[in-house]
Design brief:
Blueprint lengths: L1 H7 L14 E2 L9 E3 L19 E2 L2 E2 L9 E2 L4 E2 L8 H10 L5 E2 L3 E4 L6 H4 L11 E4 L5 E3 L5 E2 L1 H14 L16 H20 L1 E2 L5 H10 L7 H6 L3 E3 L4 E7 L6 E11 L5 E8 L20 E5 L2 H11 L3 E3 L20 E5 L4 H14 L4 E3 L9 H6 L4 H6 L2 E2 L8 H13 L1 H4 L8 H7 L7 E5 L6 H13 L5 E5 L4 H13 L10 H8 L4 E4 L7 H15 L3 E5 L14 H19 L2 E5 L21 H5 L2 E7 L9 E8 L6 E8 L4 E3 L9 E2 L11 H21 L30
Parallel strand pairs: 1-5, 17-18, 17-19, 19-20, 22-26, 22-27, 23-24, 23-25, 25-26
Antiparallel strand pairs: 2-6, 2-24, 3-4, 7-8, 8-9, 9-10, 10-11, 12-13, 13-14, 14-15, 15-16, 20-21, 27-28, 28-29, 29-30, 29-31
Subcellular location: Mitochondrion inner membrane; Mitochondrion matrix, Mitochondrion nucleoid
EC number: 5.6.2.3
Membrane topology: Peripheral membrane protein
Length: about 750
Amino acid sequence: MWMSWFLKGTTCLLQVAARSTPRLPPQRGLSSSLVRILTKPRTPRFAIPPYYPPGQLWGMSLPISCTRSYKKDTKSILDFPVDPITVTDIKQYLRSKDIPFHDGYSCLHAPSIFLDSAVCVPADTGKESFTMFIDKTTGQFLCKETLVEGSWEDLQDCLEVMQKEGQASLSPHVLLGYPESLEEREEKEQELREVQRIWSSAVPFSDLPDEEAQLVKTMFQIGKISNATLKKFAVRLFKPTKSLVFPWFSGRDSSLRGIKLLSAQSMESGTVAYTEAMVPKAGSYHNLFGLPLVGRMDSEVVLTGQEVDTLAVSQATGLPSVALPRGVNTLPPALLPYLEQFKRVTLWLGGDMRSWEASKIFSRKLGLKRCSLVRPGEFQPCPVEALFQGRNLARIVKASIPAAHKSIVSFRQLREDVYGELANTEQVAGVKWTRFPELNRIMKGHRKGELTVFTGPTGSGKTTFISEFALDLCMQGVNTLWGSFEINNVRLAKIMLTQFAMQRLEENLDQYDSWADRFEDLPLYFMTFHGQQNIKAVLDTMQHAVYLYDISHVIIDNLQFMMGQENLSVDKFAVQDHIIGAFRKFATNSSCHVTLIIHPRKEEDDRELQTASIFGTAKASQEADNVLILQEKKLVTCPGRRSLQVAKNRFDGDVGIFPLEFNKASLTFSAPVKGKLKLRKVKGEGSDNEETLGETLKKEETTVKKEKLVKLERPPKATKTPRAVKSPAAGKGTPEGEGKKQP
């Protein structure tokens, strides 16, 4: 009875008030190379976030205006300097202005220029007085005392004003951003009211009946977490949706800035999935849960990927612990200043391979020398599960391994990593596609750190296919960066939105805002480059995006648009080899998958493309981990005209080919329905027994034609109704009505 009562309300989850207003870009010119389209909320483990119609908020029907209004979003464009800043440049400039500073792990520490020196410098005048943090990679700064933040250019402007006016400090209000519109102010006020309403309605666990409190803990797998720990971290229960409420308190005045809600949802399979929602929206939710409980003198912290894991670590070990706001998806650089005080950071983001990979990436931002990782090779679960199993969490944290590695290692250092890959083969294979199951059978998954070369005939739909290919992964939480040099971002976004909605939105404009709001929740970003570009500028932008948004998939469309800007050699093939080598190095060093579109050589219309058809030298196919070819039979109009061939797969060697069908209304490619054309794996190139796609389809078409001819010539029997006979092609290409019983 109690279980049914609990699950009855678990499918209702917070949906922040729907936005029915698209955004126009800011009106002043900015030297940006990235356009931030959206930020995706972190998806918790085993969670499939449901969709709630616009206007539905906590079971209430909110009025939705049919009038489309527009506002500019100051955060939709990412400032990217034309000449990337370096830490050497930052230090030289600070010295020229007589600004004292000292080196931190990921930031430079300096006295705040937004506080009077008599106020900001305590009696001990030590390094603790350096409350302004300047990011070594981007130059972004943050004053922890006043919460003033801005770009490196903003800080330079402030220092120039101070020097010109002869001032010792500036007012925190000196940096005026874009004036907020009435709609933006109303949205913020509504979010704040919603935060206060939910928080005031939430109930502390100590006020719940014991039976109800234990049931809630069981549903969220926190049965071993005591009420004292929940009270210490101010965790509450919001009864209308049966959600745990995790607060976000400001470090300056302990005011409530936001909340995160974690809900349990019963699935048809009988399992329980966990979904979460944030107020304010994810792009503005920068809460390190547990940070207010960290003392100024604490030098060690355990970084987790879930709030419940932080509860478990704190209770079991007594160590300071904080949770990332979006788990393994991203570590926003805006949070780095709050982690500068710690000399040792232990990353325990979870017990799976994805958490392990994220830990290694995040440790680069935090500083490898001070980071240690809890390895998953020994089947270490996440902290809350380890606590439930009765494990010794303190011992696990103590046994964590250093993140920094030597240039030469022995198998002893690699032994646990190898075991982890053997024990987690499915996770090591990467993220699976949902729209292309045949691709999973051949490539096994999409993995970080690889280079994929994709080619196909001109006009065959390379960009359209690869946009759906990337969209599929992006919908599963893969942070994606698009570099489209051939078509502009508006047209590309239109294609992807149509593929996302699976319908022609031109004919359903009343649904545009609904689909656009959902599309906006994907971790998708676009470069603003268009036309021919210099490879250095593109690589700098990619590196910048990886640092800021933890991008794990970059699509470059296409290689030829970067070759015209290079002056390394008159030999265009040497230029291409240089560019491919640069992308290969970036993919490996940044642990980021790069998909590179390359046009093929000109071939006859009746000839299929091979790996050797890729434009340039053999370096493209040699450096690539995967080679995908979109095959097209231009002289054929029947189904099966297009197909995708995996010509190289370095992960496990499987190659193959499968047909695609193009839906013009939704601009999507998909495999034909089961029973038409089956997947056929082929041997690698150079094999004597290799069967090309054309030969395969010709054989199948010939078989179908023969089957039809036999059926037409065979006279019907009047005395006995024949049974349906399936063709050797298993119904491939069989027209409607064929194979049924005849009277």
